[in-house]
Design goal:
Layout: H1 15-21, H2 28-41, E1 46-55, E2 58-67, E3 70-76, E4 82-88, H3 96-105, E5 110-125, E6 135-153, E7 156-162, E8 168-170, H4 178-185
Antiparallel strand pairs: 1-2, 2-3, 3-4, 4-5, 5-6, 6-7, 7-8
Length: 186
């Protein structure tokens, strides 16, 4: 799952860290906090496997769950902060503005897959410690929803995400928009 996009972390998975920790399960206290947080948002959720992951220094658990027959994945920190949830979705079901924006941004690329992502928290640089390299997870005041597809061009793979209103939120690293380039300068 791609998480923590607010500081350009989306898709920057550390393969070795994931391979080593993917099977690591949370302790009883962390599992209880994760379950409680997910049940607060999805009361009918059936919680499945949990495995530890790390992306750019942020550790969380990827949790499989089923809500009213819909399979989802959630990224949740050990203290119970839900970062995001993802569920498969067909681009045909995306809001028209989102689908149109994605098609335009993906011109010349092969589109596959589709996901509905609900983001509950984001990663921010923690400049309060004086160490701008420190990243922390901060809850959003309200969750945001994005519509995502995988894209491929010339052997390169990436992801494009759009809001329901048609704003492109994420482009592949190799096909950045002007907005993405400006954010990278920050």
């Amino acid at each position: 799952m791609c998480v923590l996009g607010s500081v350009g972390i989306v898709g920057a998975i550390l393969p070795n860290a994931l391979a080593e920790s993917k099977n690591e399960k949370p302790g009883a206290e962390a599992a209880a906090k994760i379950t409680q947080a997910l049940k607060a948002v999805y009361p009918d959720a059936v919680i499945g496997e949990m495995g530890k992951e790390t992306e750019d220094g942020i550790s969380f658990y990827e949790v499989g769950l089923t809500v009213k027959g819909t399979k989802m994945d959630a990224d949740v920190t050990s203290d119970g902060t839900i970062i995001e949830t993802e569920q498969e979705a067909d681009m045909q079901t995306f809001p028209k503005a989102a689908a149109d924006a994605i098609k335009k941004a993906a011109k010349g690329m092969k589109i596959s897959g589709g996901e509905l992502t609900t983001t509950y928290a984001k990663a921010v640089k923690d400049d309060t410690t004086g160490d701008i390299q420190t990243i922390r997870v901060v809850k959003l005041t309200a969750p945001t929803i994005s519509y995502e597809v995988d894209v491929k061009k010339d052997g390169r793979e990436g992801e494009i995400a759009a809001s329901a209103e048609g704003t492109i939120l994420e482009s592949p690293k190799w096909a950045k928009t002007g907005k993405d380039k400006e954010e990278d300068k920050d």
